[in-house]
């Protein structure tokens, strides 16, 4: 039987998740702007007579790095949104896989988690 979290506790996590979501969305907007800038720089360097110049290749590296950081941020944002969805449905704090309560200490560290430690270690 899963324990119900107190409404005040859920509200506290909801606020943390909403803050996190806002922060991640702002970060993604920032990445997209930087990536767009890198893309513009890249396409203008393609037209330059010296395609192998060091500046262009370091820009490409930077661009690839930004993309992977953005992917991680998007993954995290997806988890945060999913956790918020569970808050809305009154399922927050319950393991998505086995239905057991997720310990508060775990939620404190990973507010966006939707799995208990056992299930998370099975899937990862
Ligand atoms: Zn579980």
* Helix and strand run: HHHH
What average pLDDT do the residues reach? 88
- Structural class by sheet pairing and helices: mainly alpha
* CA-CA gap between termini: 25 Å
Percentage of β-strand residues? under 5%
The kinds of small molecule bound in this structure are: zinc ion
Please, could you describe this protein's structure?
The chain has a domain at 7-91. Helix content is 71%, strand content 0%. It contains 4 helices and no strands. It is elongated, with a radius of gyration of 20 Å. The protein starts with 6 loop residues before the first helix and ends with a helix. The structure holds zinc ion. The site of zinc ion has 8 residues, from helix 4. Zinc ion is lined by residues 95, 97-98, 100, 115-116, 118-119.
Observed structural traits:
mainly alpha, elongated, binds zinc ion
What topology does this entry show?
Layout: H1 7-46, H2 54-88, H3 104-109, H4 117-123
The structure holds zinc ion.
Give a quick summary of the entry.
With 124 residues, this protein is mostly helical.
